[in-house]
Specification:
- The chain is of the alpha+beta class.
- The protein has 2 domains: about 280 residues, TIM Barrel (Alpha-Beta Barrel); about 60 residues, no CATH class.
- Strands 1, 2, 3, 4, 5, 6, 7, 8, 9, 10, 11 and 18 form a 12-stranded mixed β-sheet that branches. The chain has a 4-stranded antiparallel β-sheet with strand order 15-14-17-19, with no helix packed on it.
- Helix 7 links the parallel strand 5 and strand 6.
- Helix 3 packs parallel to helix 5.
- It starts with a helix and ends with a strand.
- The protein binds zinc ion (ZN).
């Protein structure tokens, strides 16, 4: 009896602590989005034997003119089903820095106090030889740390921002602090010397630009300083550059260029469409393989359910995602199902007429004549040039 008296509180305590443990698992835990959120998985099967990674390679944080931290930007990417993210803060436009200076005023060398930050606003002032004095690797390092925790990849990068001379993303930089030069071309060359991949961002940024590219840009392209072109930035699609991109064998990209929350930039992301992504066809998710894929041009730009890429890659993607099968016939028509195993929706038109939506993970039924031997489809949400959609034929 004495032993039972001793044991009872122990038994009770162990029951109580077990239920407390259970409660702590179920209880809402404070933390960033990735800690308590759900990842929206985007499934795309292998294409040509390559994994298809979903990437956003142009985003901003408080370390330039964004409103959120690198950790939160990476968590958003995780929740949105992305595999790869790059924080590409503006090297020469750092809006938040003034506030940080004020906040840290007692830590800052009096020599700099009152002068404002150095080369923080090239939109109002030409860049000068003072360079940048901040540690411009901080955001990338924070992003890399958070990405590692969540099991996705963060690529080190920066946006070289020169106002009317254009903006350029440098990806896979090794030291962002060693890039700056008052001369834009030299800055791009400094990035390339680090092995960086250079993307011409929002190439039709200036609405007054009559020609396809401003003259100095053509010079950069001619000198081989540009590797890829942003064909979609947010909901802006730069169709004047589509043909230029594919003819010149530049790698196409679609990016968010998010400064504030992704949910504000893409209000229906995850419902009607996904946030902008660049689909990267790579052997694996290592820096070496991803870099190789970008250099080989194996990307497809995804924006608002439009897929923009070379005709070959678009057809390979469609082929990997979709299968076509004959089903029943009646006295005059033959039913054909188009089955989509991916998370990407497709729009197809039959013989250039009626459009059918083949939903993500869904099936569409189309009808052809009872004696038709072939089904011709145009994939209308894919583009390999202006008004150029790939066509496929299926033997019935
Ligand atoms: Zn940007």
């Amino acid at each position: 009896m004495k032993t039972l008296k001793l044991l009872l509180p122990l038994i009770l305590m162990s029951i109580l602590s077990a239920s407390a443990q259970k409660q702590s698992i179920l209880r809402h835990q404070p933390g960033v989005i990735g800690d308590k959120g759900v990842r929206n998985e985007i499934y795309i099967p292998k294409v040509m034997g390559y994994n298809v990674y979903k990437a956003d390679l142009h985003t901003h944080t408080i370390y330039s003119d964004g409103d959120i931290t690198p950790a939160l930007r990476v968590n958003e990417a995780w929740c949105d089903g992305l595999d790869i993210i790059a924080i590409t803060d503006h090297m020469e436009y750092r809006r938040v820095e003034r506030e940080i200076f004020q906040y840290m005023k007692d830590y800052i060398d009096p020599a700099y106090r009152g002068k404002g930050a150095v080369n923080t606003n090239v939109l109002n002032r030409d860049p000068d030889s003072n360079g940048i004095l901040v540690d411009f690797n901080v955001a990338s390092t924070a992003a890399e740390k958070e990405a590692k925790r969540l099991g996705i990849m963060a690529i080190k990068g920066v946006e070289i921002t020169r106002g009317k001379l254009g903006d350029y993303n440098a990806l896979f930089t090794t030291d962002n602090n060693a890039l700056y030069d008052p001369n834009l071309e030299q800055t791009i060359r400094n990035a390339r010397a680090q092995g960086a991949f250079i993307i011409h961002n929002h190439p039709q940024y200036s609405k007054n630009t009559e020609s396809t590219l401003p003259p100095h840009c053509e010079d950069f392209y001619a000198k081989g300083l540009i590797d890829g072109i942003e064909l979609a930035n947010g909901f802006n699609h730069y169709d004047r550059l589509f043909d230029y991109c594919f003819k010149g064998k530049y790698t196409p990209f679609a990016t968010s260029d998010a400064h504030f929350l992704i949910s504000a930039r893409f209000p229906n992301a995850g419902k009607e469409y996904y946030r902008n992504m660049t689909l990267i066809l790579a052997k694996d998710r290592t820096e070496k393989a991803v870099k190789e894929a970008l250099r080989a041009g194996r990307t497809i730009a995804y924006s608002a359910n439009m897929l923009i890429g070379t005709e070959k890659l678009l057809l390979e993607l469609f082929d990997a995602c979709v299968e076509v099968e004959k089903v029943g016939t009646d006295w005059k028509k033959l039913g054909v199902v188009i089955r989509n195993k991916s998370s990407l929706p497709f729009a197809v038109s039959k013989d250039g007429k009626n459009e059918y939506i083949v939903p993500a993970h869904g099936t569409a039924m189309v009808y052809v004549g009872r004696n038709d031997k072939v089904l011709n489809l145009t994939i209308t949400n894919m583009l390999y040039g202006v008004n150029k959609s790939p066509k496929v034929s299926f033997k019935l």
